[in-house]
Structure formats: C-alpha cells, structure tokens
C-alpha cells in the first residue's frame, strides 16, 4: 500500500512540477507586481499557492467528470488552453517598455493573485490537462481513494514550493539585477508563447488525426 502511494506521489509530482515551474512563475510575478512590501509579497504568495492548490485539486479529483459532463475532450481542452497561454505570452512580449514602476504596477487593475498569477501563469490549461490525465478517478471507474491520499501529499508539496518561490521572488530579482530580470522575463514570455503554440498544435493534431512530432 505505502509503496503504491509513494509511486503515485512520484508520478504526480514528476508530471506537474515541471509544467507549474514555481521559480519561473515567481519571476513572472515581478513583471506584474515589481514593487511590493514584504507583507504584500507574503500575502500574494500565500494566495497564489492556495489558489493553485484548489485548482489542481479540483482538476485531479473531478476534472474528468466535469469534462465528461460538458462533453469536452482533452484535445479541445489543449486547443483552448494553448490559445490562452499563447495570448498571455504574446501580451508579455509586447508589453510596455516604460521604466516607470508605477506604470508597470497599475497595468493590471485589481488583485492579480488569481489572474494572471495563478491562472494562467502558475496553473495554466496545460497543468490542468496534465492534472486531469493523472487524476484520481474517471466517470467509468470512480474515485480511487488511495490515489486521493497520494494526490493530497503531492499537491501540498507543490503548493509549498509555489509559496516559497513567490514569497522570495524579489530577492531573486535583486540578485539578477534590473536589466537581467527584464531579459529573463522576456525569455520566459517567449517560452510561454511557444508552450501555448505547442499545446495548441498538439490539440489540433489529435482532433485532425495528424502526427504530432514533438522533439
């Protein structure tokens, strides 16, 4: 039993952690909220980690049921997710180059903890699709409660890594310096755009029955 739970934890963490990419998401937060007090940074990190935990938990537990209820297939989810991610990356690539911090801070109105920091930057459609694929149950087989226990442990660990990365993102940005941080953010924006295109192409390939040559 414990061996099975350990294997399930390894599979879930190995599948989700590279896509969630907490350090990358933390650096992206500097582009959205470049100026914040330690208390504000802590609140933001806590909220993003909690939002991510809830989104991933819902995807793992009931994602397959929700898709089945609405008749949405995984390829369609990938197409929609790819469009959202590519659009977010494109907006970041073509964002304002104004060096005024206040202009950057107020570019996103309201609380950015959920959008865009949680969705789509930390837990995007790609992460949701993977979470559904390694989910804890299907409409045909029902809930696997041993898998639920493994998922709970895995998601708490991933959420903790999101919190730590987001909480101390400013320190990482300070070490990199302003210009290097801008370069890294532009590179991450381009990577996000490419991930969106790749996810879109994979979904379209599956829908059209085309070979998906991923390298």
Comma- or semicolon-separated keywords:
215 residues; mainly alpha; two-stranded antiparallel ribbon; 79% helix
Beta-strand portion reads under 5%
Give the neighbour order of strands across the main sheet: 1-2
| Count of discrete structural domains | 1
How big is the Rg? 18 Å
Terminal CA distance: 36 Å
- SSE-based structural type: mainly alpha
> What is the succession of H and E elements?
HHHHHHHEEHHH
- The geometry reads as globular
Low-confidence stretches: 98-107
Largest sheet: 2 strands, antiparallel
* Percent range of helical residues: over 70%
**How many helix segments?**
10
- Average pLDDT over all residues: 81
Strand count: 2
Could you describe the 3D structure shown?
The protein is an all-alpha fold and 215 residues long. The chain has one domain. It contains 10 helices and 2 strands, in the order H-H-H-H-H-H-H-E-E-H-H-H. The protein has helices at 2-20, 22-32, 38-70, 74-93, 101-105, 113-122, 125-133, 145-167, 169-176, 178-208, and strands at 137-138, 142-143. The protein has a two-stranded antiparallel ribbon with strand order 1-2. Strand 1 (137-138) and strand 2 (142-143) form a beta hairpin. Helix 2 (22-32) runs antiparallel to helix 6, helix 2 crosses helix 10 (178-208) and helix 3 (38-70) packs across helix 7. The longest helix has 33 residues, at 38-70. The radius of gyration is 18 Å and the shape is globular. The termini are far apart. The model is unreliable at 98-107 (pLDDT under 50).
